[in-house]
């Protein structure tokens, strides 16, 4: 799938309360966050995926995988809010002006984001027909089958008609193709709850997994031949669920470790973030950034394909395949 209060009330509030009422309005407008991306580890320390309460994975089985193009975030900076002077000779009028401006700025930013996303999605024009044949449920089924081989926990696909008491992980995966078409990043929002009370979230997080950058003269041919785009989507989803499970089972959700700057390559650019390194193996590094999101990125960002050997500096025997 390609994504394309009344006057009378204010009049009766004492002046001192003006500041409180309008202050809350300002905070409500300017401080809103996307709740679906808020990190929550409410009960993570006590979660176990056992035979008595196994883990089930729920995805939208009625749709194809969700692909979008990478947006240049730098284009969102500036514009509305630069050099603004607010009218008013009282704090109440000033705060009201701030609130009105915040609403206008938010609407403008939202419209701009939508426009930029539509433009960014054009990178997928040559992939539309192929992507429409990749079912989200099929991808998840393959991943669950692989994860089920691990005897440390019990996992299966979610069954709405089952009476079994389970943990339910609702997974919303979005795949992002970079504008140079050399990398795929999965951004998976995962919410965990008990099957008997799905509205009570015990764990919520965003897990981003980045593929290595392929070095080839024809990225489109690489992704479409031998189902590499589909294989990469499956592999990235596998890694995201693997780290979701690891995050809970190892108790790292509440672990405070030393912060450092880590680096990865995205769309040909070096990206720097602050956070805590959770683990590193031969292929991938996992880190928790300052938002609390888990970022999984390749140790060696480049994999050369199309008849060229893989990164010679890698300590591992490189394989020219999707991660």
Architecture overview:
This protein has 323 residues and is an alpha/beta fold. Helix content is 30%, strand content 26%. It contains 7 helices and 12 strands. Strands 1, 2, 3, 4, 5, 6, 8, 9, 10 and 11 form a 10-stranded mixed β-sheet that branches. Helix 2 runs parallel beside helix 3 and helix 5 crosses helix 7. It is globular and about 50 Å long. The model is unreliable at 5-27, 29-33, 78-87 and 303-323 (pLDDT under 50).
Tell me the layout of helices and strands.
Elements: H1 7-12, H2 15-30, E1 55-58, E2 66-69, H3 91-120, H4 128-131, H5 136-147, E3 155-157, E4 167-177, E5 184-194, E6 197-210, E7 213-215, H6 219-224, H7 228-249, E8 260-266, E9 269-280, E10 284-289, E11 294-298, E12 302-304
Parallel strand pairs: 1-3, 1-4, 2-4, 6-11, 7-12
Antiparallel strand pairs: 4-5, 5-6, 8-9, 9-10, 10-11
Order of helices and strands: HHEEHHHEEEEEHHEEEEE
Strand content is 25-35%
| Overall pLDDT score | 79
The biggest sheet, with number of strands, parallel, antiparallel or mixed sense and barrel status, is:
10 strands, mixed
Taken from the alpha-carbon principal axes, the silhouette is globular
Radius of gyration: 23 Å
Helix proportion range = 25-40%
Number of helices: 7
Number of strands: 12
Head-to-tail CA distance between termini: 22 Å
Question: Any low-confidence stretches, pLDDT <50, length ≥5?
Answer: 5-27, 29-33, 78-87, 303-323
């Amino acid at each position: 799938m390609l994504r394309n209060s009344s006057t009378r009330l204010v009049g009766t509030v004492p002046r001192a309360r003006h500041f409180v009422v309008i202050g809350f309005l300002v905070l409500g407008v300017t401080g809103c966050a996307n709740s679906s991306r808020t990190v929550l580890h409410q009960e993570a320390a006590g979660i176990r995926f056992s035979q008595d309460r196994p883990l089930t994975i729920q995805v939208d089985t009625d749709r194809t995988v969700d692909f979008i193009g990478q947006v240049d975030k730098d284009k969102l900076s500036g514009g509305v809010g630069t050099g603004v002077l607010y009218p008013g000779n009282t704090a109440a009028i000033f705060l009201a002006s701030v609130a009105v401006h915040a609403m206008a700025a938010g609407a403008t930013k939202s419209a701009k984001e939508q426009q930029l996303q539509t433009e960014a999605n054009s990178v997928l024009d040559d992939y539309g027909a192929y992507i429409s044949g990749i079912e989200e449920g099929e991808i998840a089924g393959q991943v669950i089958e692989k994860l089920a081989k691990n005897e440390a926990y019990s996992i299966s696909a979610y069954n709405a008609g089952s009476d079994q008491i389970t943990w339910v992980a609702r997974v919303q995966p979005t795949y992002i193709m970079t504008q140079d078409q050399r990398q795929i990043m999965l951004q998976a929002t995962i919410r965990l709850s008990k099957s008997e009370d799905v509205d009570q979230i015990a764990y919520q997080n965003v897990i981003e997994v980045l593929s290595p950058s392929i070095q080839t003269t024809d990225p489109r041919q690489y992704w479409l031949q031998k189902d590499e785009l589909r294989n990469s989507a499956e592999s990235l989803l596998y890694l995201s669920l693997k780290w979701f499970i690891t995050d809970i089972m190892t108790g790292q959700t509440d672990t405070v470790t030393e912060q450092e700057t880590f680096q990865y390559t995205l769309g040909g650019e070096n990206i720097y973030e602050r956070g805590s390194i959770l683990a590193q193996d031969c292929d991938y590094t996992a880190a928790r950034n300052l938002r609390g999101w888990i970022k999984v990125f390749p140790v060696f960002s480049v994999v050369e394909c199309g008849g060229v050997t893989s990164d010679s500096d890698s300590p591992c025997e490189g394989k020219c395949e999707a991660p």
